[in-house]
């Protein structure tokens, strides 16, 4: 099964405020872009990913991610994460009605294509499925098969909300890179320990991160 991934990205100037203990305000937009670049680059080389759609209104991010091969969709609803994901999935399905679609976080800088493939292959067994994040509270990936609707419920405690919505939780080992999103300094240290992509490595090299 070949998937189209929908990746939402808010304006870079507003991204990653919880990294304030690790990176100065002027560096956070660069980190957010680097995370997205490494996420998109890894996703595009996954064997079961046919296409990556990024939903964003940020001009710089749109240019940089399009240069990697992503298709850019403007955030027409401009009403938060879940509305952006629903819009992106609708755009995909309008063009290809029975395309399997998966929402993927934009902040997975350690993403490994093979691990992403394992997750998507497991998700293909269910109408809707999701993968919890490393903290076991949120969600990093939500998938809908050819005849399923995405129905995103991202945000605080999204793991419990996706489970309550009827999506199957994927309980997989060996996919840490797909679980490790980055919201805090501790998350960034964990991602660096896994091994991040070149964009994040270059930007984070200028940070003093105790314990990394």
Quick description:
The chain is built from eight helices and seven strands, in the order βαβαβαβαββαβααα. The chain has 212 residues and is an alpha/beta fold. It has one domain (3-201): Alpha-Beta Complex (Spore Coat Polysaccharide Biosynthesis Protein SpsA, Chain A).
Core attributes:
212 residues; alpha/beta; Spore Coat Polysaccharide Biosynthesis Protein SpsA, Chain A; 8 helices
Could you characterize what this model shows?
Helix content is 38%, strand content 16%. It is α/β, with parallel strands linked by helices and 212 residues long. A hairpin with a 6-residue loop joins strand 5 and strand 6. The radius of gyration is 16 Å and the shape is globular. The model has no long low-confidence stretch (mean pLDDT 93).
Question: What's the layout of helices and strands?
Answer:
Elements: E1 3-8, H1 28-44, E2 49-55, H2 59-68, E3 71-73, H3 81-95, E4 101-104, H4 113-123, E5 128-132, E6 139-144, H5 158-164, E7 168-169, H6 176-179, H7 185-194, H8 198-204
Parallel strand pairs: 1-2, 1-4, 2-3, 5-7
Antiparallel strand pairs: 4-6, 5-6
Helix pairs in contact: 1-2, 1-8
């Amino acid at each position: 099964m070949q998937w189209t991934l929908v990746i939402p990205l808010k304006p870079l100037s507003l991204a990653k405020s919880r990294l304030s203990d690790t990176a100065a305000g002027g560096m956070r937009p660069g980190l957010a872009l680097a995370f997205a670049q490494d996420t998109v680059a890894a996703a595009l080389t996954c064997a079961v990913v046919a296409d990556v759609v990024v939903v964003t209104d940020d001009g710089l991010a749109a240019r940089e991610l399009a240069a990697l091969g992503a298709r850019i969709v403007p955030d027409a609803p401009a009403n938060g994460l879940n509305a952006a994901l629903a819009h992106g999935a609708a755009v995909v399905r309008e063009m290809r009605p029975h395309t399997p679609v998966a929402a993927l976080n934009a902040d997975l800088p350690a993403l490994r294509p093979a691990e992403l493939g394992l997750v998507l292959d497991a998700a293909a067994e269910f109408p809707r499925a999701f993968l919890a994040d490393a903290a076991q509270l949120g969600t990093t990936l939500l998938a809908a098969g050819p005849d399923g609707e995405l129905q995103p419920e991202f945000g605080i405690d999204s793991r419990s909300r996706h489970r309550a919505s009827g999506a199957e939780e994927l309980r997989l080992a060996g996919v840490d890179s797909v679980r490790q999103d980055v919201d805090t300094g501790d998350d960034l240290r964990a991602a660096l320990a896994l091994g991040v992509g070149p964009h994040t490595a270059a930007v984070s090299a200028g940070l003093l991160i105790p314990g990394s």
